Automatic annotation (TrEMBL), chain A:
It comes from the Bacteria. This is Peptidase S8.
Automatic annotation (TrEMBL), chain B:
Residues 26-87 form the Metallo-beta-lactamase domain. This is Metallo-beta-lactamase domain-containing protein. InterPro entries: Competence_DNA_uptake (IPR052159), Metallo-B-lactamas (IPR001279), RibonucZ/Hydroxyglut_hydro (IPR036866).
Amino acid sequence: MNTLTPSQSKKPPFRKLRGYSFDPALSLKIDTAPISTIVYKVRWEDIGDHEGCLKPGPVGEYVEVIDYDPTVKKFYTPVNLNDPYILAQDGLDPSESNPQFHQQMVYAVAMTTIQNFERALGRKVLWAPQRLAQVTGKRTPYEEYIAKLRIYPHALRDANAYYSPQKKSLLFGYFSSAPADETIQMPASLVFTCLSHDIIAHETTHAILDGMHRHYNEPTNPDVLAFHEAFSDIVALFQHFTFPEVLLSQIRKTRGDLTSENLLGQLAQQFGSAIGSYGSLRDALGEIDEETKKWKPKVPKASEYRTVMEPHARGSILVAAVFEAFTNIYKDRVSDLMRIASNGTGILAQGELPPDLVNRLASEAAKAADHVLQMCIRALDYCPPVDITFGDYLRAIITADSDLVADDSHNYRLVFIDAFRRRGIYPKGIKTLSVESLQFVAEPVLGPDAQNALNVIGEFLRGYRNEIMYEQDRKKIYEITKKHIASYTNMTKTGLHGQILEKLDNSFEFEQLTGLILDQDWKKLGVNPSGASSDDPSFQIQNLRLVSRVGPDGDQVNQIIFSLVQRSGVRMNDDGTFAGHYTPGVGEVPANGFEFRGGCTMIFDLEKAQLKYAITKPLLNTDKLAFQIREIDTGRVEQQYGYQNNDTMMGISDYSHYFGIGASDALNEPFAFLHSH
Amino acid sequence: MAKQKETPSKRITTAEVRMYRMGTGDCFIIKFFAGTDNTFTMMIDCGTWQNDKEHLTEFITDLKTYVNKTIDVLIVTHEHKDHVYGFEVCSDLFLNDFTVKNIWMGWTENDNPGSSGGPLGDQVNEWKKKFGQHKMALSIAAQQLTTIFSGEDQLKQAQSELNGVAALSIRQGFADVVNQFAELHLSATDNDDAINYAGGLKGMNIVKKNLAKNNITYFQPGQIIENIEHAEGIRFYVLGPPTSIDAIKTESGPEGETYSHSHNSEGADNDAFATAVLNLGVPQPPASLFPFDKNYELNTAGTAPTAIEAIYEKDAWRRIDHEWLNSAGSLALRMNSATNNLSLALAIEFVDSGRVMLFPGDAEYGSWDSWHKINWSVKGKDGTTPLTTAELLNRTVFYKVAHHLSHNGSAKKRGVELMNHPDLAAMATLDYGKISKGWKNTMPNHDLIQALLTRTKGRLMIMQEEGLFVDQAARQTPLHDKIIETRGQMNSTDKADFISSYKENRLYLQFTVKA
């Protein structure tokens, strides 16, 4: 139905859509009812029939909402957000009983999340491509572009919602509630996970993160899955601060003290109470005391990072660290306001804060939250492509921020280090804990040969930049990038993959830098031959991307980033020590055998056409490499094997126990079982 | 008893506990002796995970001979296959030439509790009805999963996807485990008319309908059974099943309370899921099945598919027709825990010495926790303060390990850690040769084994040690070696005592407990 004809007037920048600020639970309580719904401003997607317009579903450029309920085998009529009546009233009324509103809600929140990422990353969000089955004897494409993330708002009848990396889809469930407190939640009423801002933002973030780092759903150490969860929570949490009405109300309620109990630091209220908890599902600041049923602030314990292994619980250590960094930054930013408002005593007068002060505090909180979220998202570009730990992430945050913001006048970086330190999160392999030592080594010194080779690659990358810089079409971005990665185009060695093999395959220094193997001995180390040439070892280039950002002082960052990932087949002895190699994909996987991955994120500075950072999780033992000995990093291999074969360490649920869903089963919906309640 | 002698005192002096080695599952005989006279005989459960009649007949025949074809009290702890299957396959052996004088069960097994509904009032009838429906739903969902994942379509689709076949085999494995859970609750043969679910496993029905002669007594926690004829000096304390639905649903406790902290939440229930499963293929389902008003449904009967349907149909790999059935997994776990917590849990006390034998069935944390809330009507050993459950655990000298050494079967702080009697011995009904696929991952629990080995000084008797390791994941030290090693460290008196009390052969393990 398209009765509106595109007119002469300018296209609107936003489509306004009403939705729940958190979830329907707030609309039932008198004190939170006024802030229970807000208007989401979603980037305008055009009216019309041509490609790229918003169709009923909603089906747009980034997402397609397909409201099929397999439990009753029914489709629900898709909402047409371009219907004039709907357009005229900022979308449908928030409602639990109207599935069309549910479709609107998931669309609005998913798009808001995507927009926040694009703003922080300075580039378009691309979904993880679909890997294709390889038919022997036929040269089939390795992967296929996925334009739209699919969203099923009513896919399950369970207290569960998850991102499926196989289906490139978000599946939301609904269930009947069994609340602990029946005065808040009606027992046996239906609860829809697709109506929770936090759950939608969390799942959408899983999908975006999977598009950036596809190996982050492989639990190679206790931090990996926890990181996926934590990061998704962080995004959902800090999005709360972009809702002005909510922020003002909570500043008013807490009298400007954001470390006291407030909605901004809590996730999934309705879900939490519907599954029988007394509060929200997760809380970055505090917890409900089991005895008194009263909220109390959480005190960081350094021991938790060593002992808590279940991914969500472990993830909340990271969330709490980031949230503490935020509250400290906020406190610092408002300290002058507080002094002015309290006549220098620091003690505010009793009663409600003056509205002007509330507005000023809210704007500082919004600013601080935005900075912290941007820091967290930007850091993703500085993370190793495999086997991430919280410590790596801290280093990435510090390095990314130092690159963009030369003058850290508010001490953001110190605040972050302090919050991590208080939780016992220390990166491995650094000697002191300071901003300088946490930064990755910039512009590693190399001999002339390696330097020359890298310069050639730097030049090549400039070519890529020129081609992609002004491209807005996501599919074209994907294709141009693919073309630049591929080894061969029409039988000429043009791509980055070919460049690296040609220019660097004798560079011992490059191996030292990346911890990956390109030269001799690779056949002995369980590495496959390359699909492009059987004389060379196989490795993958992932996520080639252009990063251009402008810092607050006008500092510019122009970088090209890509990741190298290499795998090796390793066999273990019964006692968990390294036994030897096998070649993956050739014959059966031997007993106690698994694929071990190493990887390196390469960051090139475009101004100097030079390698700036090589952030590595080495496949090879870098100590031995210094003596020209090529050997697998048995330390990492044994650590990973030990972790994946220890139930306590894995911190996995009974569910995984009984159904035998372990580390190696990333094939089977890694997030579904994690999220099951 | 036929051959009772007239002796001045018939107080019980020993109890002989015999565990039949039929496969993972419980079947116990406890013979009480006054001196050399066997005056009183109990039987607890008769089940095993899997086995045919031919195999089981040998055990049951031996059992009948051993008890002289007469049981004074039969206890059926709870309705799981591994506790009642024997009554089903060998029903003829039990129904002929065999006398059961009394049967004891937990209060929740009473199918006609009268108007009051037992300790929980009408709530329990409601709950039991729902529980029965969930069992049915689990069974239907399990069948569906098997049908779907073994179908041609799925295989074809899997072959076209990267790692598709491997992923499919994981799903088939999942379906197998769900099916085994379903089987644990519902006899396979009952599945045909699952819709007409009447209640229970065949084995349980045989006990209730055929074996019982109006002689079942149902017990509630807090009850004390004493002054039983021919069991002089013996007192039974009823610990569970709990009388709170929350306790029944609780599988694991807070951190430190069980041997591994699990993430499963007890709060959410599976009603919406069960309703959908029970209405699969029902031509005119009730309106309550649907989450939304009919008006919102896309009505395309007879017309060409709409744009949205076309998108859904286009890529088979992105469809979600069957994903929702995976919720059967969490349903299965919840059903399992709830049924385990319905176990009739008993502490059997030798009154004179205060020594206790603990038979908890398969009780999980919720039940263990509830035991401590019981106000006992008798005094403790000191004769002044009221008896506490903790004291009973302190005095425990024989422990039938709950739930086959799983992490959630034995409470930690409120259970095993209170069992500090120097004479403690334990028996566990675990056999890796005959066990459900899913269970192997949780049994035995490494920490629980360590704790029991230390506390019993090696008097840990396991149905079948073959295939078990101290740490099942590491597979380094066979558990057998460790047990022998620990027993080697006992002092000479303990060692001699143990050797004279313990008997082992192909059919059973036997241990004599002193009064």
